[in-house]
Every structure is written in structure tokens, then in C-alpha cells.
Amino acid sequence: ERMPTALLLRAQAQAILLKFAHAHQDLQRILDTDPEHRQALKMLRQLSQKQKETQQRDKTLAKEVCKWVETSTAAAQEPPPAKPKQQPNESAAKDDLSSKLWSYFTCSTLE
């Protein structure tokens, strides 16, 4: 009489901790000695239902995490916006102006 009660309590604790395999083993030990044990049969049905719900919740969470990771990874792989390219004439004109200014200031300081 004490053994089934202890196993039921332990199975219940295991189920709360989401250790379904251990809870199932304890319930199966009770049913091995008494196949008609009402509480063990009831708890076994509840355990199966809770296990299915947990698996479904985990599956949904895993999908959400994968989607988040894909979005984050895609955003990280996008190249930074390109800088507008200068026209070749603009670049040459700027370089020419810079060199003229440099020449002017260096030559005027030498005189």
C-alpha cells in the first residue's frame, strides 16, 4: 500500500519537473503490480496529455526562435548602403584644385 503511494507522489513530482520518462516508469511499476490501479491509470492518461501539450509548445517555440534567428542573420548579412560614387571629372577637379592650393601656399611662403 505504501509503495504505490510513494511511486504516485514521485511520478507526480517528475511530471511537474517535465521528466516524463521517469514519471512514466514509476507509473508503470505501479501498474505492473496492480494493472487496475485507478490513480495510476488516470495519472498515466494525464501524463500523456501533458507530454503532448509540452511537445507542441516546444515545437512552436522552436519555430519562433528559428524565424527570429533567420531574420537576424539576414539583417546582419546585408551589405552597408553604398556611398554615392563621384564623377571622374569631379574627382579630378578636386585633386587639381588641391594641388593648385598647395602650390600657391608653399610657393608664396618661400618668397
UniProtKB/TrEMBL annotation:
Family matches, as InterPro entries: TPR-like_helical_dom_sf
Organism: Amphora coffeiformis
Full protein name: Uncharacterized protein
Superkingdom field: Eukaryota
Lineage: Eukaryota, Sar, Stramenopiles, Ochrophyta, Bacillariophyta
Region feature (Disordered): 71-97
